[in-house]
Request: fold
Amino acid sequence: MSTRPLTPKEILKEILRTKSGLIGVIILVLMVVLSIFAVIYTPYDIVNAWNDPVFWQSNPRLAAPEWINIIAGINLPKTIILGHNNFYKSEYYVQIAGLKYVNLRGTFKFQYDYFPSELSLFLKVNYSNKSPLVKVTFVRPDGNMVTLYEGIVESHNSVIYISTDPKIRKRIRTFLEKFTKGEEAYMIYPEIILFAKPDRDMWDADKARVLKGTYELRIEMVGYNPTDTLEAKLIVYGRVYGLVGTDDLRRDLLVGIAWGAPITLAFGLIAAVLISVIQVLLGIISAWFGGIIDEAIQRLSDILLVLPFLPIVILISFIYGVDIWRLLLIVVVLSIVGSTTKVARSIALQVKSEQYVEAAISYGASGWRIIFLYIFPRLLPYTIANIVMVTPSMIFLEAALALIGLIDPRNPTWGRIIADAYDGGAAVHGYWWWILIPASLIILVASAFAMIGYSLDKIVNPRLRER
Reply:
């Protein structure tokens, strides 16, 4: 007499009874929690801005995760932002001269052990006709002052890139000459010199020492209309940021990691479920009907098994530029039959000859009823096991296609982040967080499915036992 097929609930119970299955389920539950966290923490408008550089301009470029300070026992700087609310503002209009004076003063403390990565000043100037004059002065804790900018501001919204502006570098070189005693400075790094202790090595990134204390930024504007005004924002970019750091476009990788979880898992699971269920059903249909239907399904399986799957997917993606969900459809169509179909056919042939199936035939049950209610439930454990084993390969497939640039870059996925890291030279330049964190998550999810698959193997093969 045949044994009763296991229900999905019973299969889950059996999985949770094994150590490997329990660990795998816990990992997948954590991934689901991460997916829910993505929806709550990162609204979809942030994801839409993933490729918008202006949206991320307040973040440091290529910053390591903040927890590196704790692990390494160092004190790398975080980003300091002086917004318009952090400046003391005074303004007055001299009617006789027809001039409007606006003064901004903002201070911040810098107590870190290493220098900032960049400095940028954002100016919002409101004027009517004639462009105002603006002077920017940087005051160090030791009392030394550096005039960073002095001139006309022609745009209402201007950005002064202190770290890269050639004119500012020339002014800083003049300031540096007071301390180098005639020694030539080969490179001018404003973010280092402005924050270094005054000595002859303050231009050298390897020898300079950080000058800790309170820094001040003074901005003076002379306008020509009583309504002229000025707002400013100074960003002292740090070297650490957030939980997982940033990439070369200043994007918070936590957003990509969080939103990559549901997209990557959905791609892998949907592809695995569709491929496994369709292949098993076609195997059952092949065994049940036989004849020309059986021959057609088996020959199609032989053809698709020898076709180069990955080159075909690459070719279609390259020609039509498909997004991730159309790519999913292509993968399913190219995998509609395969080795799983042949295995399911051989199992279905054995189930077909069992007494309860023959009894159903004698009662007049239709072929489709027997396929879905009598044979398919017997193959359900095998189907679930196959889903679990196929899912990691689908996740790796998405990462591989992203790595060669065939995934839509508008949606952040773990594979897309790894591809961007590869293009940005993360492995060469030591930006380990950019490539290691998403790669580790892919391996972790694949390991979770492998452990669940191992526990399912014990369900399908009762001779295996947990030691």
User: Anything to note?
Assistant: Residues 353 and 359 are 10 Å apart (CA to CA). The chain has two domains: 8-51+252-460, 77-237. The longest strand covers residues 99-110.
